[in-house]
């Protein structure tokens, strides 16, 4: 059997941290503990690695995400690999995975993984998830399925996976659709195919996009503030099928009048936003105002999509189509 050549990028997160046994706090460790386990995979894979930065994932910004895309593509052009694994903190893992899914021009499996318990904690899931991720990245069926998120014996698509629990190791789920596949002791089993989406070109990520959650009694103040500062776009996690309190409408109108796109997602975990309701603040009215309805993404992913689309030179009037995909 020829060995698969796997490129591993370590970026930080709990998977590379240790617990202080005295205080119980978890912090970055000097030496990434996963490095010493690459040999466990040496029978089937030939691993080479890079660590472009070492950050807890709340420190990661779209600039690091763009850096990862460029590192993957440049490395592939210089020394082609069969698959790639990125280890990452779980707090923003879904955002990095989705950013790469939207922008990466690579024809090999790319898998993002992390851990909920640090390296020296009882029941640590880091090494197990890392080995699972390398197995998936080495698997021929993982090709052409977009960027994948692998933790806790499950394979998720980057556009659906989301962190649902603050501490449980079974934190990543794909609401509404379920995982793409599972990992067993002997097999990698895919149960469904993800929908392919068009790639968005990206060379810079310097636009400012805000994410605001709607709530009962919301008024226009926060949105008006955004309309009058340096924001280039706004994503609103709306109520239910895509409705807002009437008092928020004047600011939505102000944003659109200033050519600042407003994208609507739902604060519900399942379902999509639609222009169903015809009352003050209802979806029908928002659509007529020019609000863009997103097709099932959560707020943090719609925010990244809008950021990338705004940075792209040829988005123009295609914004609505981009969020329909
Ligand atoms: N706070 C950590 C991080 O995202 C959590 C983790 O890695 O699981 O870096």
UniProtKB/TrEMBL annotation:
<feature type="binding site">
    <location>
        <begin position="90"/>
        <end position="91"/>
    </location>
    <ligand>
        <name>substrate</name>
    </ligand>
</feature>
<dbReference type="InterPro" id="IPR027475">
    <property type="entry name" value="Asparaginase/glutaminase_AS2"/>
</dbReference>
<dbReference type="InterPro" id="IPR036152">
    <property type="entry name" value="Asp/glu_Ase-like_sf"/>
</dbReference>
<protein>
    <recommendedName>
        <fullName>asparaginase</fullName>
        <ecNumber>3.5.1.1</ecNumber>
    </recommendedName>
</protein>
<dbReference type="GO" id="GO:0004067">
    <property type="term" value="F:asparaginase activity"/>
</dbReference>
<dbReference type="GO" id="GO:0006528">
    <property type="term" value="P:asparagine metabolic process"/>
</dbReference>
<comment type="subunit">
    <text>Homotetramer.</text>
</comment>
<dbReference type="InterPro" id="IPR037152">
    <property type="entry name" value="L-asparaginase_N_sf"/>
</dbReference>
<feature type="domain" description="Asparaginase/glutaminase C-terminal">
    <location>
        <begin position="208"/>
        <end position="323"/>
    </location>
</feature>
<feature type="active site">
    <location>
        <position position="90"/>
    </location>
</feature>
<comment type="similarity">
    <text>Belongs to the asparaginase 1 family.</text>
</comment>
<feature type="active site">
    <location>
        <position position="14"/>
    </location>
</feature>
<feature type="binding site">
    <location>
        <position position="57"/>
    </location>
    <ligand>
        <name>substrate</name>
    </ligand>
</feature>
<dbReference type="Pfam" id="PF00710">
    <property type="entry name" value="Asparaginase"/>
</dbReference>
<dbReference type="InterPro" id="IPR040919">
    <property type="entry name" value="Asparaginase_C"/>
</dbReference>
<feature type="domain" description="L-asparaginase N-terminal">
    <location>
        <begin position="5"/>
        <end position="195"/>
    </location>
</feature>
<dbReference type="Pfam" id="PF17763">
    <property type="entry name" value="Asparaginase_C"/>
</dbReference>
<dbReference type="InterPro" id="IPR004550">
    <property type="entry name" value="AsnASE_II"/>
</dbReference>
<feature type="active site" description="O-isoaspartyl threonine intermediate">
    <location>
        <position position="14"/>
    </location>
</feature>
<dbReference type="InterPro" id="IPR027474">
    <property type="entry name" value="L-asparaginase_N"/>
</dbReference>
<dbReference type="InterPro" id="IPR027473">
    <property type="entry name" value="L-asparaginase_C"/>
</dbReference>
<dbReference type="InterPro" id="IPR006034">
    <property type="entry name" value="Asparaginase/glutaminase-like"/>
</dbReference>
<keyword id="KW-0378">Hydrolase</keyword>
<dbReference type="InterPro" id="IPR020827">
    <property type="entry name" value="Asparaginase/glutaminase_AS1"/>
</dbReference>
């Amino acid at each position: 059997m020829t060995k698969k050549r796997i490129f591993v990028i370590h970026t930080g997160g709990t998977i590379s941290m240790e617990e202080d046994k005295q205080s119980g706090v978890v912090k970055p460790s000097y030496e990434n503990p996963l490095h010493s386990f690459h040999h466990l995979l040496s029978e089937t894979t030939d691993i080479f690695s890079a660590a472009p930065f070492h950050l807890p994932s709340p420190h990661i910004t779209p600039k690091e995400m763009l850096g990862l895309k460029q590192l993957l593509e440049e490395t592939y052009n210089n020394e082609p690999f069969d698959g790639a694994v990125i280890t990452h903190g779980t707090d923003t893992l879904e955002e990095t995975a989705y950013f790469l899914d939207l922008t990466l021009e690579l024809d090999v499996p790319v898998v993002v993984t992390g851990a909920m318990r640090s390296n020296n904690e009882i029941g640590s899931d880091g090494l197990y998830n890392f080995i699972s991720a390398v197995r998936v990245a080495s698997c021929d069926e993982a090709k052409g399925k977009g960027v994948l998120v692998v933790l806790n014996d499950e394979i998720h698509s980057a556009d659906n996976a989301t962190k649902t629990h603050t501490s449980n190791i079974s934190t990543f789920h794909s609401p509404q659709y379920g995982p793409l596949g599972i990992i067993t002791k002997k097999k990698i089993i895919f149960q469904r195919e993800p929908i392919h989406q068009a790639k968005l070109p990206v060379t810079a990520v310097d636009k400012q996009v805000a994410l605001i959650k709607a709530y009962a009694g919301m008024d226009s103040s926060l949105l008006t503030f955004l309309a009058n500062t340096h924001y280039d776009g706004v994503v609103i996690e709306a109520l239910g099928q895509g409705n807002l309190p009437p008092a928020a409408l004047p600011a939505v109108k102000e944003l659109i009048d200033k050519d600042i796109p407003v994208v609507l997602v739902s604060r519900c975990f399942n379902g999509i936003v639609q222009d169903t309701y015809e009352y003050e603040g209802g979806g029908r009215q928002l659509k007529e105002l020019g609000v863009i309805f997103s097709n099932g993404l959560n707020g943090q992913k719609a925010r990244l999509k809008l950021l990338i689309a705004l940075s792209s030179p040829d988005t123009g009037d295609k914004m609505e189509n981009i969020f329909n995909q």
